[in-house]
Amino acid sequence: MSYDRTVSLATVDFDTAVARVRQALAEQGFGILTEIDVKATLKAKLSHYMEDYLILGACNPPLAQQALEADRSIGLLLPCNVVVRRESDHVLVQALDPNTMVALTGLDAMKPVAAEATARLDAALSTLAPAAEGR
To answer: Three-class SS of residue 55?
Structure first.
């Protein structure tokens, strides 16, 4: 089972890509609760260099509430992680496939939450598609 939804952006400007991702998520009702700059963290803690790599913890509160009502342990998978990372001469935007919640829990009550989250994430990713190479 694939656990990601990915768009490859033709842009090489990482900061512009991150701004576009934030905007696309906001338009679909997702706020950013957490942000982890993996590149900066590994450099500071381990003196290790890696390419640009940012993890955004995106959350749509109504969907999070529905998921938590169905299964309190689902918080282990919340917020929805969205990764923006450089790969060669382009930037990848990857979101965790919400259907992973259904597969892991086996709960029918999680299906409508996953379906709505998938539709919203796909809508956000599709707005990035004009600059995308593929998905």
So the answer is: strand
